[in-house]
Amino acid sequence: MTKVLIVAPSAYPLGGVATWIDYLVRGLVARGWAVTVGLTAGRFHNVEAYLEQHPGLPCVEIFNPTGTREGRIRALMRTIIATRAQVVMGVNIIDTYEAVNRLRVEDHACGVRSLMTIHGIQPDYFEDVLRESRVLDGVVCTNRLAVEFARRSGVASERVHYAQYGVPQIAEPRRLAPDSKQAALRLAYVGRFESWQKRVFDLLPICNGLVERGVSFQLIMAGAGPDESELRQKLSDHTHAGRVLWLGSVPAQDMTAKVYRQADILINPSLWETGPIVVWEAMAHGLAVVSSRYVGSGREAALVDGVNCMLYDVGNIEHAVSSIAALADNSLRLRLISAGFDLLKLRYNQEASVFAWETAINRVLAQPPVPAFCANPQSSAGRLDRVLGVRFAESVRRVLRRKFEHDEPGGEWPHSYGARRFNEAQFWQEASQMDASVGETVFRS
């Protein structure tokens, strides 16, 4: 029985990645794998709160007593040894790969594989791939465009794999009478309230445009995020008029009753996505989808305008409004709902997703492990490191119980060490061109 350790942050118990971990672990265990989730612990990483949202996961806590990078690496090494992992999958915990590499350096017979999972299309993630390419046995991406970027980042092509997200398959889509009438279109936004990637501020002009067209609607807002306060202020007039309903963060087990059964249309205005799981969930529950042509949608070649969804160019508010208004036509909504359901049956159900991830892991195991690599010494974390050296200083800190305190989750357990050295505008222009080379234009600056 192959032992797999999935290393992940506990700071984000809701959202697509946490949902993916939940069903992947249970799916692999059902297929005979021994899987443990290593959840990071700390001031901003609450393992107990995470497990409240995902009860029953086979889990160990990874705690760093000193707060330093050396402390994180040692904590990860201890966890890998304790779980006897043969495959270590990193999920947005960048120190995972140095921990695996150091075990190889210290024990040349150590055959543990390191596997980086990519859940985003961001320049710093691919800087990480480039920097860690000498120690990675595999990279698995959840989006075809991310696969192309990973292949350009120094990892041998045969070590880069694709495995999609999936959602539970409902027996059949919700029925809708073609000629039925309703007082208002019921819309939903589900996800992080964040302005850059998720473009939630586009929801204000979309709502304004619907009002100007005389379209009666109610928008359900399910989620939370860093721009929530400003978003609530922007949408306050629509909230007071009863057109916007705020639900806050909705636990996964309540999404069907509180959101999907209460809505007809999902809105996804994102700049980029690697799924998104929320779109597949909406399709599974019989919602029509109105989405931007986000970066990542082109090479994935799943969403087809007028066939299984309505698409508009990122930021094109007028087209977004007209797409939503067109869905007052129940016959059009029925066609989209049916085609979306077919897409899930073919590609984005959980059984297909677990099979794809299992296949990727097996391909990594079928190749010889990459050789141990003696990395450059770490930079100093403070005066003690400069005087005693990083590793000895770490041992002294543990004896003295000295600890660095961080002020945010990404400092406590970093997702990336990418310095965003890439020119941002150039990266997104290249990403757009790569994605559009197999489809339509997906991004406008």
Give a brief rundown of this model.
The protein is 41% helix and 16% strand. By secondary structure, the protein is α/β, with parallel strands linked by helices. It has 2 domains: 1-166 and 349-439, Glycogen Phosphorylase B (Rossmann fold), CATH 3.40.50; 185-348, Glycogen Phosphorylase B (Rossmann fold).
Strand arrangement within the widest β-sheet reads 3-2-1-4-5-6-7
Count the strands? 13
- Helix content percent band: 40-55%
How many domains comprise the coordinates?
A: 2
**Any guess at the CATH architecture of the largest domain?**
3-Layer(aba) Sandwich
Our count of helices gives: 19
CATH superfamily of the largest domain: Glycogen Phosphorylase B
| Envelope shape | globular
CATH topology of the largest domain: Rossmann fold
Beta-strand proportion: 15-25%
Q: Sheet bearing the most strands, described?
A: 7 strands, parallel
Radius of gyration (Å): 23 Å
Q: Which residues sit in consecutive blocks of at least 5 with pLDDT less than 50? A: 439-445
Q: How far is it from the N-terminal to the C-terminal residue, by CA? A: 50 Å
Mean pLDDT: 88
Question: Would you kindly provide a written description of the structure presented here, covering whatever features stand out?
Answer:
There is one protein chain. This protein is an alpha/beta fold. The protein has two domains: 1-166 and 349-439, 3-Layer(aba) Sandwich (Rossmann fold), CATH 3.40.50; 185-348, Rossmann fold, CATH 3.40.50. 41% of the residues lie in helices and 16% in strands. It is built from 19 helices and 13 strands. A seven-stranded parallel sheet has the order 3-2-1-4-5-6-7, with helices on both faces. Strands 10-9-8-11-12-13 form a six-stranded parallel sheet, with helices on both faces. Residues 439-445 have low confidence and may be disordered.
